[in-house]
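Lab notebook page, bench 4
Experiment: in silico fold of construct C2
Operator: M.H.
Input chain length: 319 residues
Purpose: comparison with the prior construct
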Amino acid sequence: MAARSIATRILRPSFRPTQQHLRFLSPSILHHRTHTTTTEPTPPEPTPNPRVNPPASTLPPPLDLPTRLPTDSLLPFLFKRGKSCALTPAQPPPTTKTNLSKNADLIFYKSGLKAVYTNTLAARRVRASLTHDIPTCLNSGHLTRANYQLLRRASHDLRRVPPFALVFLLCGEFTPLVVLAMSGIVPRVCRVPVQIRRDREKAEVRRRESRASVKHGVRGKTEHVVRSLGLLPGWMLRWLPNEVMWWFVRRWMHYVAVDDRLLRRDGGVDGLVAEEVRLALVERGRDVLGIAEEVLRGDLERWLRRGEEGEGIERVLKP
């Protein structure tokens, strides 16, 4: 009866233990009551939406390149960087001359070309599954944004395989250094991180310079849009008529309008992975370098809202 009375008193909220009560409790229970803490549940991370994200094979794989130390000479460092592009992320570095000669064929670029082939086959399967033409399937919902981007990227990369393969055969291990100045001939899945960052830096500098020196009139705004989006090389803007430049702008406007509609319909910005958010903003002429992912998602959501409100080319003219 005494033990039952003590147990009843322990369950009361106003209970304060004494030495008489503590001898009825085991050491493990005392230890648990002393050290147990409550933790706030962490919110779950957003799950990537397969309807808005194209296959991962349409993006270049992650690649860690060596950084140049102050004691490294230029030519040995460039040769070592070229060797690094020959290794896949899961492949260990070579230790013997035999392994070095086997890896001299740039496995990274070969894997990229295989991804182009894989994406081309997947795009063909998507086209074969369509019962109507692409505009009709887009309007009816039978073609998702993921498949739409797959079709575009597979076609984009396939057109660049012949010139890139020629450079690959001629330059070999020095291909990463040569293609830095010729990003236009490189398939998307074969671009190393340094090249991607360098292209985005050039685009952001070009947009800032264009905003600072935009000319008045229709041609001035057209040149600003073309230069900001990188639709044509800068040297062509001097002699091309305004009608030709506007044709490229209209084609870009049509693509962005379709992609915006598909993105809103198939799940929105929350379902995109981080790299897809950056790609979408780069295609729309927005800056992405040095900006947090939450800010980038907010920028893309504002872009979609402004499009719903009826804004078109004005979204590019405004910073």
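Observations: DSSP finds 16 helices and no strands in the chain. Residues 24-37, 86-105 have pLDDT under 50 and may be disordered.
Next step: discuss at group meeting.
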